Amino acid sequence: MSGITIGLAGFGFMLVLMALRIHIGIAMFTAGSAIYLVMNQGNLNAWLFTLNDLAYARLSNYNLSVIPLCMLMGQFATHGGLSRSLFRAAGSLIGHWRGGLAMSSSLACIGFGAISGSSLATAATMGQVALPELLQKGYSGRLATATLAASGTLGILVPPSVPLVVYAVLTQESIGKLFAAAVIPGIIALCGYLLVIRIIVSRDPDAGPASAKASWRERIEAQFRVLPVVGLFLVIVVGIYGGWASPTEATSIGAAGTGLIALVTGGLRLPQLLTSIYRTAIATAMIFLVLLGADLLNSGLALSQLPVELADWVKHSGLPPLLVLACILGIYILLGCVMDSLAMLFLTVPIFYPVIMGLDFYGMSATDKSVWFGILVLMVVEIGLVHPPVGMNLYIINKLAKGVPMRETALGVMPFLASDFARIVLLVLFPAIPLFLVRLPHA
């Protein structure tokens, strides 16, 4: 039996395990072990040695500490009431516009995402804060839930972003460069969502009625309350981009600062502190388990030569590189209908990354191509979070919006998905957009 056949059989075995609802980390670990043992003719000592080496090499990686720090920062931000402050600040400025409160929730989501790094956390937290007020002010259930479900994805489009850290670890790419590359696409995503809301309320004014205009005193007070968030964002993004701090150092300062804010505001006491640490530990352990399983699967696939042969076949197939890229992005979108975003990254990046790196796109260097592909992957992973039927953000928001049918939420996100697709096309055709900050001398 050839190595390619063994690799394909092992990959199929993993998909079967996942279909049986086995945890993806366990499924990858089992399939990777099976491929490795078959390729080494059942040599158990070689497998144990590889497992020991992979576990130490992966879990001792200093860069991985960014993941628990981002998650702890998000937990502290939730308890500190920063999400409510962000929503109030944005609402005081534009809440009197038609659809202004919906736009405010999008602005608050991108602000909260800058200190949480998680789409699910952003959607859940902002949903609890903004959804009741949107419905109380007369916003349609479709617009209110769809806006929050779509805007929740902004949590991973702006740095720090957990999926970008995972991509960096899997591809050995610079976390700082990926964070810098995500800034402009994140701003474009926000502008796209604001435009969608504006178009919706222009066609149906009753979907997003205007609210009372805040006084200048209320506006100034609201802006002062979000100054700590602005400070944290500057520390993380400007610190990393300016080279003053590594991603780990910046996120550790951000986590400490967010915890201090939560402590001062009274939202962080001993029970909340213990809960934050407990939830961070659980999420981190899950991600690390999947990372270890992905490493073992990649090791088995490397022995089978499957990724190398696939990349070589695509390279010599004569297919246009943009067509190959379109097919890969299409696969991500389809997988997003049935699979979690991190699971997609762990499963597909080791296979698709060599394919992309073996093709020529606009004469880009290997580093630019790697960063560009990482941002594109982040975009399509984000679509999976709101794409029916299994978009996680849809279920999170719809669960909070009792009385709003899931069908209304799913239909409501369609204009936002159109904005997402347009943004992906823009970034595919003009890679200089995400690479602009990366290519600056000080990036």
Automatic annotation (TrEMBL):
<keyword id="KW-0997">Cell inner membrane</keyword>
<feature type="transmembrane region" description="Helical">
    <location>
        <begin position="178"/>
        <end position="201"/>
    </location>
</feature>
<feature type="transmembrane region" description="Helical">
    <location>
        <begin position="277"/>
        <end position="297"/>
    </location>
</feature>
<dbReference type="Pfam" id="PF06808">
    <property type="entry name" value="DctM"/>
</dbReference>
<keyword id="KW-0472">Membrane</keyword>
<dbReference type="InterPro" id="IPR004681">
    <property type="entry name" value="TRAP_DctM"/>
</dbReference>
<feature type="domain" description="TRAP C4-dicarboxylate transport system permease DctM subunit">
    <location>
        <begin position="11"/>
        <end position="433"/>
    </location>
</feature>
<keyword id="KW-0812">Transmembrane</keyword>
<feature type="transmembrane region" description="Helical">
    <location>
        <begin position="342"/>
        <end position="359"/>
    </location>
</feature>
<comment type="function">
    <text>Part of the tripartite ATP-independent periplasmic (TRAP) transport system.</text>
</comment>
<keyword id="KW-1133">Transmembrane helix</keyword>
<comment type="similarity">
    <text>Belongs to the TRAP transporter large permease family.</text>
</comment>
<feature type="transmembrane region" description="Helical">
    <location>
        <begin position="250"/>
        <end position="270"/>
    </location>
</feature>
<feature type="transmembrane region" description="Helical">
    <location>
        <begin position="409"/>
        <end position="437"/>
    </location>
</feature>
<protein>
    <recommendedName>
        <fullName>TRAP transporter large permease protein</fullName>
    </recommendedName>
</protein>
<feature type="transmembrane region" description="Helical">
    <location>
        <begin position="222"/>
        <end position="244"/>
    </location>
</feature>
<feature type="transmembrane region" description="Helical">
    <location>
        <begin position="102"/>
        <end position="127"/>
    </location>
</feature>
<feature type="transmembrane region" description="Helical">
    <location>
        <begin position="371"/>
        <end position="397"/>
    </location>
</feature>
<feature type="transmembrane region" description="Helical">
    <location>
        <begin position="6"/>
        <end position="39"/>
    </location>
</feature>
<comment type="subunit">
    <text>The complex comprises the extracytoplasmic solute receptor protein and the two transmembrane proteins.</text>
</comment>
<feature type="transmembrane region" description="Helical">
    <location>
        <begin position="317"/>
        <end position="335"/>
    </location>
</feature>
<dbReference type="InterPro" id="IPR010656">
    <property type="entry name" value="DctM"/>
</dbReference>
<keyword id="KW-0813">Transport</keyword>
<keyword id="KW-1003">Cell membrane</keyword>
<feature type="transmembrane region" description="Helical">
    <location>
        <begin position="60"/>
        <end position="82"/>
    </location>
</feature>
